[in-house]
Amino acid sequence: MKPKFSSGDKVFAKVRGYPPWPARVEGLADETPNKMKYHIYFYGTGETAVVKGEDICSFVENKTRLGKPKKHKNFTEALIQIEAELSPEEQQTLSELEQSFKEQTSLNDTTGDDAKRSSTTGKSKTSLSPTPKVNKPKEKKRKVDSDSGTEEDQKKRASVVSNSDLEHKNAEVMSRSGRKIKPKRFADFEDEGNEENSPVHQPVKPISKVAPVKKIDKDETGEDKYVIAYVNNEKVKIPLGYNQPQFSSEQRLNEWKFKERSYANSLKKRLESGETLPFEIDAHMFKWTKENAEQPVIQDNLMRTEIIRTETLLLELDLNIRSALNIKNADTKKCLTYLEQLSQLKLTALMLKKHPDVVHTIKKVRRYVGNVPRALTEEEEQAFHRDAEEIRNKAEHVYSKFQSLFFFPNNKSFWDAFEEERENFDKITKHMNSEEIVGMIKEPE
């Protein structure tokens, strides 16, 4: 089965008692290579765990759904850290997905408003459209009229009254069928003349104020100057560009800008979620940028120091293992100790490509039998063979751990695939000197 995730992938990982958390894949779990469990590093907390593949999903593809502000401690910090480590391609994809999500949300809101508006108008028409009843002349009045005047006058008068009533009734029906009557709340302050001449769409005018707000603000705002948050239909500006340090490359500058904008977006989410921040935004961003201006350089130096320390220990253990298994004077106990220490190191694929001799040593130790010293008793010889078997098993475990750091096709042996990977690494770094290769902390592009 082909692994779904590779070493270094940015993901959301789920463990019991916590929501899906920003994390990084460190490699396949060497204990269960066929069940697709992964070694996971969690941002914000720095903790690690072995997580099933079914509890892991892509960070970039699911950030709009799972990256909403949460009350859990360190969650916001975890989002900032993982977004700061995204590649430019991942950042571009994430921006496009977030923009698409915002547009879809805006479209849904507009559709909902239109539906409500249509429903309101329909109800108004239904409740107000019935034609008012025309009061019929009472019989007594007609009787009185018939008593006063000749029969011919009565016929003329009846004809005039009948025609007048009919015209009035028809006029009322036409006036109501040719327009939409405004709800009473909008017409209280108008007289009947204005009501008769009011345009069809006049009643829904007040509802159309919401949609253009963001569009106007977006046109007026400079994206490089601040991030806009909307709180109670009012915009809050989160400034950008304070205390920007000088960088030697455009890539480092872009990384800084992305980190600053990510933090500003985290403040935006907190504001829009209804949280009341205990500080003034402008002053806080000035303080934050000042404190973090040199942090990228410091973090790189700390990471480089830690990697060099690990690689130095790796080379020392490699030398000690080979010395302990010397043909003339093998010390199996010491070899087992060194193998155990090697299995505890936090290694990366880059470290092994920089020092391939370590992989070659462990590959050979997996087949170790050893020469039994001549001066051993039968009991000591049996103990030697037991140690040799334990050395092979321990070396197999370490070799499996090396293998979990890479993702190669199943139809190819790890050693052959590693050799191809190492040759490719040598081609990419052939223009570098040994100091540059040793100081490398990221995969070359």
TrEMBL record:
Compartment annotation: Nucleus
Gene3D superfamilies to which the protein is assigned, alphabetical: 2.30.30.140, Conserved domain common to transcription factors TFIIS, elongin A, CRSP70
Keywords: Coiled coil, Nucleus
GO cellular component, one term: nucleus
The keyword Cell membrane is assigned to this record: no
Residue stretches of biased makeup (Low complexity): 89-98, 118-134
Residues covered by the PWWP domain: 7-62
Entries under Pfam families matching the protein: LEDGF, PWWP
Tagged with keyword DNA damage: no
PROSITE patterns: PWWP
Database matches in InterPro entries: HIVI-bd_sf, LEDGF_IBD, PWWP_dom, TFIIS/LEDGF_dom_sf
Biased composition (Basic and acidic residues): 142-156
UniProt region (Disordered), positions on chain: 89-183
Family affiliation: Belongs to the HDGF family.
PANTHER family: HEPATOMA-DERIVED GROWTH FACTOR-RELATED (PTHR12550), JIL-1 ANCHORING AND STABILIZING PROTEIN, ISOFORM A (PTHR12550:SF70)
Protein's name according to its UniProt entry: PWWP domain-containing protein
Organism of origin: Nezara viridula
